[in-house]
Amino acid sequence: MKNVERAGITFGAAALTFFAPTLAFAEGTESGGADILIPKMAEFVPALIIFLLIWFLLAKFVWPKVIGVLDAREQTIESSIEQADATKAEAAEIRDEADAIVADARRKASEIVLEARSDAEKERSRIVALAHDDAEDIIAKARDRADDEMKRAYAGATDTIAKMSVAVAGKIVGDTLANDEAKQRELIKKYLAEVGGLNG
Fold first, then answer.
1. Cα(88)–Cα(95) distance, rounded to whole angstroms?
2. How far is CA 85 from each of CA 37, 75, 92, 98, 141, rounded to the nearest angstrom?
3. Of 36, 44, 42, nearest to 20 (Cα)?
4. Rg (CA), the chain
């Protein structure tokens, strides 16, 4: 493709070179002030030969080097573009991997938090149950102590009442022998009032 373009450019330049003098000489037949600008045939032919010789030398020696440098530059640019595309694809792949790692880390962190909450809830439930059991034990012991104290108090009160009853009965019996029936009734009321005052 590049060779076709080069051939077209070369052919166009050669055609322009061959037809330009013909047009110039055709106009040269007219009289005018432009004669100074139009070259004479004696000057034109050697200039054309030198031009063609220079053009041939440039096309043979210089132009291939220039084209080689441009081709090398084009290949370097294409290689750089390919490397950039490869680097871009690699960066996208690395970014996707990094995103996957971050998502995995977030998922694991969420799992750890949920597990920690679950463990904390289990520990809280265990501590509450243990405290409830301890409280039940303390309440049961306090009830047992209260029952024991109440039984002792009842036993003490019963003993005191029995002693007082015996004492009252002894006084009544002792006084009964000494006094008459009216006095006995008064004494019984008096002793009952005393016993009632002690129990109240």
1. 10
2. 56, 15, 10, 20, 83
3. 44
4. 67
Q: Return d(Cα 177, Cα 168) in angstroms, integer.
A: 14
Give the Cα-Cα-Cα angle 18, 21, 23 (nearest 5 degrees).
Answer: 105
pLDDT digits (tens, 9 = 90+) for 37-84: 777 888 888 888 999 999 999 989 999 999 999 999 999 999 999 999
DSSP assignment string, 10-48? HHHHHHHHHHHHHHHHHHHTS-SGGGGTSPPHHHHHHHH
- Phi/psi zone of residue 31: left (φ > 0), alpha (ψ -120 to 50 degrees), beta? beta
- Least-confidence region, from 52-61, 63-72, 96-105, 150-159: 150-159
Average pLDDT, the chain: 79
Distance CA 138, CA 155 (A): 25
